[in-house]
Design brief:
Blueprint lengths: L9 E5 L14 H13 L5 E5 L4 H10 L7 E4 L4 E4 L4 E2 L1 H7 L5 H8 L6 E2 L10 E4 L2 H17 L4 E6 L3 E6 L4 H14 L6 E6 L14 E4 L5 H10 L6 E3 L4 H11 L24 H16 L7 H9 L1 E8 L5 E3 H9 L10 E14 L2 E12 L2 E13 L8 E10 L14
Parallel strand pairs: 1-2, 1-10, 2-3, 10-11, 11-12, 13-18
Antiparallel strand pairs: 3-4, 4-5, 6-7, 7-9, 8-9, 13-14, 15-16, 16-17, 17-18
The structure holds alpha-D-glucopyranose (GLC) and magnesium ion (MG).
Length: about 425
């Protein structure tokens, strides 16, 4: 299974639409806060799982539109498809399990008898998911009648209503909750049970996540009526589930703090990094911190002072080299000087930087190779470089801070720039 080599410290299992992603926030403020928190503190020893109702087709679309991190595991199509890693390797055992007593044609045949059920687009019809739209006031009645007719045929199925509009028919063993239970069982066989699991959701198809044993749960503040109703009927006395006061990803961060699951201060919420606690210092944190400074520098959100830049230079080895994605080599100090002259060049414009898949490998007692994806959104253009950095600790260990010794970038396929001179690092 993709991800960590030992027991994950935290497994976050989150829905996407209106949970991880706030479609009402064009700045993606809380998503970027979550990203920085995750990459700085959790990526190296925890598991990120997205559990979405979306099919692979429209899940991939969302990833192009929004600054989403790469999850270790992706559960799609309302818990009917489980896939691992960046290349979405499907879990064929799960597919086989769902095939038991499932007859997709029969579901579509029976559903056709209800004119109130409007089929969703072709992309959302999947091998183990038949999806419709239906108005709220008609839903209860149709769900009851459709259930009766499918039962008569002896089919094992379940019907899930979400967002006050979407109706999914799935095999009985499917769904987000069952998919999570399956994943936890798999992790157990591999000796990798997470220390803690946090499930996060906003709508009806997320309800099952909250009934998986031994998980913490957060319903984000903007949760839908049907989820809140499910909670009132089934889980009101469960102290491990909260209804956050914050929307979407901010609600997830709130829950990490509420249940004391680990660090809950996003580097994006820290105005000056000298205030960072030493227990946060690790190579991932160093990378996040640098690129946040870089974003703020170009947006003129930090002060342009000599000590500021001189301090930064101290962290770069005088003999350090940067290999630009164009192939041109420069000294790291020259790059810092070039950055100096870009102060405020993105001020008042849309400019956001985030890192994904930060993966440090310790090479010796004081040296790390850190590989990650560096993303930059400038206006409506988005670019990404696969980046490798060699860091060494200044003193005896990581808590003394790091020196950057070498850096190398290549374009992530499909995300390069035409004009290389626009890319600093
Ligand atoms: C997503 C899917 C849709 C499904 C809905 C609720 O929006 O695209 O097919 O019905 O989630 O589960
Ligand atoms: Mg949702």
């Amino acid at each position: 299974m993709a991800g960590v080599n030992s027991c994950p410290r935290l497994m976050v299992v989150s829905d996407l639409d209106l949970t991880m992603v706030d479609h009402y926030d064009s700045e993606n403020h809380s998503l970027l806060r979550f990203n920085a928190l995750w990459e700085a503190n959790y990526r190296h020893n925890s598991l990120l799982v997205f559990s979405t109702g979306r099919s692979p087709t429209i899940y991939k679309q969302l990833r192009k539109e929004k600054p989403l991190l790469s999850p270790d595991i992706t559960v799609m199509s309302v818990g009917t498809e489980i896939a691992y890693g960046e290349s979405l390797v499907p879990d064929n055992d799960w597919v086989e399990f769902l095939n038991q007593n499932w007859d997709r044609n029969m579901v579509t045949e029976e559903a056709r008898k209800f004119p109130e059920l409007i089929p969703q687009s072709e992309t959302e019809q999947r091998p183990h998911k038949v999806s419709f739209y239906i108005e709220k006031d008609k839903a209860d009645e149709v769900i009851k009648a459709l259930s009766e007719s499918l039962e008569k045929h002896g089919l094992d199925f379940k019907i899930i209503y979400s967002g006050g509009i979407a109706l999914d028919v799935l095999p009985q063993g499917a769904g987000k909750g069952q998919a999570l239970a399956y994943l936890l069982k798999r992790l157990k066989t591999e000796g990798k049970v997470p220390d803690n699991t946090l499930v996060c959701g906003d709508s009806g198809n997320d309800a099952e996540l909250f009934s998986v044993p031994e998980v913490y749960g957060v319903m984000v503040s903007n949760a839908q009526e049907e989820l809140l109703q499910w909670y009132a009927d089934n889980a009101k006395n469960n102290p491990n589930i909260i209804h956050a006061t914050e929307r979407c990803a901010a609600g997830i961060i709130q829950a990490i703090g509420h249940f004391s699951l680990g660090p809950n201060t996003s580097p994006r919420d820290v105005p000056h990094f000298s205030e960072c606690k030493p227990d946060n210092v690790n190579p991932g944190h160093e990378i996040v911190k640098f690129y946040l400074f870089y974003e703020r520098w170009r947006c003129a959100e930090v002060e342009d002072t000599d000590p500021c830049m001189e301090n930064l230079k101290v962290d770069y080895h005088p003999a350090g080299v940067f290999v630009h994605p164009s192939g041109v080599e420069r000294s790291l100090h020259d790059c810092i000087n070039a950055m100096r002259s870009c102060y405020g060049d993105k001020q008042g414009r849309k400019f956001r930087v985030w890192v994904d898949r930060v993966s440090p490998v310790q090479m010796s007692s004081d040296t790390w190779i850190v590989k990650f994806d560096k993303w930059e959104l400038s206006g409506d253009e988005r670019h990404c470089c696969i980046t490798t950095v060699v860091l060494s600790s200044k003193g005896g260990d990581a808590s003394d801070g790091f020196t950057w010794r070498h850096m190398h970038q290549t374009w992530l396929e499909g995300w390069g720039v035409k004009d290389h001179s626009n890319w600093l690092f």
